[in-house]
């Protein structure tokens, strides 16, 4: 069950991390959109794997939840949402 | 690595493998055959009642006939240059009915322009649907359920692969040579599973990432749009992945040049290109364009596009070395997944890897069932999953063989018109019957029987074609290749049967296979766990 929640919580986190990368890399985000999707996929798989590391189930899941919140808040400080390509 | 952490990775690997294993078996077995999708399209063509054409049909005459019979095809169609040229287009429904994609060939039109379409086999498309959406029909909406499901399965498969790598990395060299024949059946399955997993890890990594990227493209685009880029993302994706914007017609018409001239113009822009298809937008419209698409051999990302306007003026060229970064990134995703970048030898390698992958998922599920039975004692869930695994795997393999036989034999009977539906229905019937049978029968006897039957089912396919179509079976290169492929499947199934019988001779089967698991059954640890126990 922890793996299932891990997979579900890792999806938005990996996509938002790619959004942060798109905001920081000094090239237009739309020019490497396909690569963002592929790297985001690998990131999603890797983050899902982390839930097996700790002994108890809840710390990695809470960690993923908190990380989602932090990355979402960080994304709001960039102009990428709704910004022109 | 600590023993308890290792065990958690083993549990994660086993759980993810078990959840996704059966779907992956279907995708890999159908995918191994689907590597020869193009050849299968030629193999499935019936020669019953077809007179030999005098020569290649005129593509321009065909286009004129098609557009005059189906005017909607002029707006957008995919034209297939061939001896019998074909076209695929979206035909809107009448009176509010939903539309559908249709196909037609020059041979469907008589000289007077009348159109007759004999129902033909759709075997290649059915095998493809099994591969990418498990045969679950798409609902035509935003999200294709079967394809999205397979995308999620591919993600779980990727996580299982990474966890498998973590588990086996410390003793990878030892396991590479460890296909032992002593001990019980479980040791054999385990060593076989590890060996196949290690040898084909790069292939599986490619399949999981590219499969997930294709299956979940829509879902990820929605998540990216909602959380990161906002609603403008949809338009940006369209702009970045379309070869040319849609036609903005002003109603001005134009006399079209012969199709051969457009193909020559494209070849002039990109010498050496191998044309696959032509997307035609606005045939006969002054604002229309054509995308001559195909491949440039010698490149991994070999897909190329030459966009011409209807006066043959080049609008855009997308080829290795002269395309946007997005096109450069997406082309290898497709070619690595489909194995169409290196000729027939790469295709044969993909075919072999696909069959080995199928064996990997069966052995993984068998291992999980036996391990669970060993560790927690007799369990209905282990027995159920083992039987379900055997029933589903044998059902899929046998069902596809029956679909092949129906595809080839039915056109020579009075029920020829039913071939497309019959080859699908026979698959599902065989699958359901074998799953129900396996849930009732002893796994050992069920496996012994079907491992004996299945090689003959696959051998019967080329025999059937020779019986009804004679020399077509070996004189047409594509038909010969498909027949050799199904013979290879038969040989592989015979090999699995031989190994299965050898294990029965050398060692007593696991009690789960004969329904004899009792409370007194000893609990076993895996080799990894035993080694870690010894170390600590």
Quick structural overview:
Chain A has 85 residues and is mainly alpha-helical. Helix content of chain A is 69%, strand content 0%.
Mean pLDDT across the residues of chain A is 87
Oligomer designation: heterodimer
The percentage of residues in β strands of chain B lies in 5-15%
Largest sheet report of chain A: none
Give the tally of β-strands of chain B.
7
Q: Any idea what the shape of chain A is?
A: elongated
Low-confidence stretches of chain B: none
Give the helix/strand class of chain B.
alpha+beta
Average predicted local confidence, pLDDT of chain B: 87
Strand order of the main beta sheet of chain B, please?
Answer: 3-2-1-4-5-6-7
Structure, explained:
The complex is a heterodimer of chains A (85) and B (536). Chain A has 85 residues and is mostly helical. Chain A has one domain. Chain A has three helices and no strands. Chain A has helices at residues 2-24, 33-49, 58-76. In chain A, helix 1 (2-24) packs antiparallel against helix 2 and helix 1 packs parallel to helix 3. The radius of gyration of chain A is 14 Å and the shape is elongated. The mean pLDDT of chain A is 87. Chain B is α+β, with helices and mostly antiparallel strands and 536 residues long. Chain B folds into two domains: 1-46 and 120-536, no CATH class; 59-119, no CATH class. Chain B has helices spanning 3-34, 37-43, 59-69, 123-133, 145-168, 172-176, 185-199, 201-215, 217-229, 233-241, 259-269, 325-338, 343-376, 380-409, 419-440, 443-469, 472-475, 477-506, 511-514, 527-535; strands spanning 76-80, 86-91, 100-105, 274-281, 289-295, 303-309, 314-318. A seven-stranded antiparallel sheet of chain B has the order 3-2-1-4-5-6-7. In chain B, strand 4 (274-281) and strand 5 (289-295) form a beta hairpin. The N and C termini of chain B lie close together (11 Å). The mean pLDDT of chain B is 87.
Task: Explain the layout of strands and helices.
The complex is a heterodimer of chains A (85) and B (536).
Chain A: H1 2-24, H2 33-49, H3 58-76
Chain B: H1 3-34, H2 37-43, H3 59-69, E1 76-80, E2 86-91, E3 100-105, H4 123-133, H5 145-168, H6 172-176, H7 185-199, H8 201-215, H9 217-229, H10 233-241, H11 259-269, E4 274-281, E5 289-295, E6 303-309, E7 314-318, H12 325-338, H13 343-376, H14 380-409, H15 419-440, H16 443-469, H17 472-475, H18 477-506, H19 511-514, H20 527-535
Antiparallel strand pairs in B: 1-2, 1-4, 2-3, 4-5, 5-6, 6-7
Helix pairs in contact in B: 1-4, 1-5, 1-13, 1-14, 2-4, 2-18, 5-8, 7-13, 8-12, 13-14, 14-15, 14-16, 16-18
């Amino acid at each position: 069950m922890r793996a299932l929640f891990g997979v579900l919580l890792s999806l938005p986190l990996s996509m938002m991390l790619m959004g942060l990368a798109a905001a920081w890399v000094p090239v237009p985000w739309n020019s490497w959109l396909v690569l963002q999707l592929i790297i985001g996929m690998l990131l999603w798989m890797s983050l899902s794997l982390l839930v097996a590391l700790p002994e108890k189930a809840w710390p990695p899941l809470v960690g993923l939840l908190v990380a989602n919140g932090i990355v979402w808040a960080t994304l709001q400080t960039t102009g990428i949402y709704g910004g022109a390509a | 690595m600590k023993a308890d952490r290792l065990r958690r990775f083993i549990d994660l690997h086993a759980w993810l493998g078990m959840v996704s294993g059966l779907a992956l078996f279907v995708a890999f077995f159908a995918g191994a055959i689907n590597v020869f999708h193009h050849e299968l399209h030629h193999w499935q063509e019936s020669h019953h009642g077809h007179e030999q054409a005098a020569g290649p049909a005129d593509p321009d005459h065909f286009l004129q006939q098609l557009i005059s019979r189906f005017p909607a095809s002029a707006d957008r169609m995919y034209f297939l240059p061939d001896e019998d040229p074909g076209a695929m287009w979206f035909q809107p429904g009448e009176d509010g009915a939903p539309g559908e994609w249709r196909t037609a060939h020059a041979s469907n039109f008589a000289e007077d322009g009348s159109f007759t379409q004999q129902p033909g086999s759709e075997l290649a498309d059915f095998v493809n649907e099994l591969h990418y959406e498990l045969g679950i029909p798409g609902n035509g909406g935003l999200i294709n359920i079967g394809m999205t499901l397979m995308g999620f399965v591919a993600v779980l498969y990727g996580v299982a692969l990474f966890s498998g790598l973590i588990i086996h990395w410390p003793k990878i060299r030892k396991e590479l040579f460890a296909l032992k024949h002593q001990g019980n059946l479980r040791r054999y399955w385990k060593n076989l599973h590890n060996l196949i997993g290690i040898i084909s890890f790069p292939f599986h990594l490619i399949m999981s990432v590219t499969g997930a990227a294709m299956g979940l493209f829509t879902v990820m685009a929605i998540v990216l749009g909602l959380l990161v880029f906002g609603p403008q993302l949809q338009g940006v994706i369209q702009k970045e992945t379309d070869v040319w914007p849609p036609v903005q017609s002003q109603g001005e018409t134009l006399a079209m040049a012969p199709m051969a001239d457009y193909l020559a113009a494209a070849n002039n822009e990109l010498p050496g290109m191998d044309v696959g298809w032509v997307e035609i937008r606005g045939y006969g419209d002054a604002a229309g364009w054509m995308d001559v698409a195909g491949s440039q051999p010698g490149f991994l990302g070999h897909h190329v596009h030459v966009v011409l306007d209807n006066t043959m003026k080049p609008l855009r060229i997308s080829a290795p070395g002269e395309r946007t970064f997005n096109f450069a990134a997406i082309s290898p995703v497709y070619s690595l997944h489909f194995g169409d970048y290196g000729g027939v030898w790469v295709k044969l390698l993909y075919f072999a890897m696909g069959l080995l992958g199928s064996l990997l998922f069966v052995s993984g599920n068998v291992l999980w069932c036996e391990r669970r039975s060993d560790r927690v004692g007799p369990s209905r869930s282990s027995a159920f999953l083992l039987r379900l695994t055997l029933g589903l795997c044998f059902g899929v393999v046998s069902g596809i063989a029956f679909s092949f036989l129906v595809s080839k034999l039915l056109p020579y009977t009075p029920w020829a018109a039913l071939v497309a539906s019959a080859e699908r229905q026979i698959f599902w019937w065989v699958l359901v019957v074998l799953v129900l049978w396996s849930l009732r029968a002893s796994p050992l006897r069920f496996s012994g029987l079907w491992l004996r039957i299945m090689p003959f089912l696959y051998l019967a396919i080329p025999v059937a074609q020779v019986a009804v179509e004679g020399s077509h079976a070996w004189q047409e290169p594509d038909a010969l290749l498909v027949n050799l492929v199904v013979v290879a499947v038969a040989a592989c199934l015979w090999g699995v049967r031989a190994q299965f019988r050898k294990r029965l001779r050398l060692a007593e089967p696991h009690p789960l296979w004969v329904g004899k698991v009792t409370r007194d059954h000893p609990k076993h640890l895996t080799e990894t766990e035993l080694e870690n126990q010894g170390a600590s």
